[in-house]
Design brief:
Blueprint (H helix, E strand, L loop, with lengths): L20 H18 L5 H8 L3 H10 L9 H12 L7
Helix pairs in contact: 1-2, 2-3
């Protein structure tokens, strides 16, 4: 995948935690992709592609960082619960 180089400033104190330049690069890339996803600017599939991981692995990262995959409004969530309540029960 093609890439661009940017100069960003990181406080020197961050490196005192044993974080390498490569770690910083990876964290910045991940943060940016997660940010774009949470802003609904990219899909989960595109996010996974940008991070070079599977979509399942991306969903696991969302879970690890406590980021909701579904972003329902209260009204949408109530509609979903009502739909589930009205599902017919299978009786055998």
């Amino acid at each position: 995948m093609n890439s661009l180089a940017f100069d960003i400033k990181i406080p020197t104190a961050i490196t005192q935690f044993g974080i390498s330049k490569e770690d910083i690069q990876n964290h910045v890339e991940e943060w940016l992709v997660l940010s774009l996803f949470t802003q609904e600017r990219i899909s989960s599939g595109k996010a996974a592609q940008l991070l070079n991981i599977s979509r399942i692995e991306f969903l696991k990262r969302l879970h690890r960082y406590h980021i909701n995959y579904f972003n329902y409004t209260d009204e949408e969530l109530a509609e979903e619960f009502d739909a589930v309540k009205n599902l017919p029960l299978n009786t055998l």
